[in-house]
């Protein structure tokens, strides 16, 4: 996965912050699926990114066969709640855990994992940042940080 070191470190921080806040990683799993599916398709590179991130969140090795049911379950929850409602709940959890920037970095890592940072992914992540009260200037800085990590040799 492109930018794997940054994403791995950030996921570890998210795990610590979520444990401290007494949350399970479901919100980050749903965030990952929201971003991966922002364009309506979750491609193989995005599945691989989700596999790595979910494995770190759940503190286990996951193969692709185990990731697919997590994606399906997450999509069902998102469909039932609605994208906007689920995104707002994720934002509240990130704020409560003081994990806003980390959540955005994980989302950006997934966005950059395949064909690049698409307009639909940018819109979704901008909505998350807004719901988290993250200033747009800081979002742009995080985008640049992840972009540089992804493009590093």
TrEMBL record:
A Pfam family recorded for this sequence: TerB
Domain Co-chaperone DjlA N-terminal: 27-140
SUPFAM superfamilies listed in its UniProt record: TerB-like
Annotated InterPro entries: DjlA_N, TerB-like
Superkingdom of the source species: Bacteria
Protein name: TerB family tellurite resistance protein
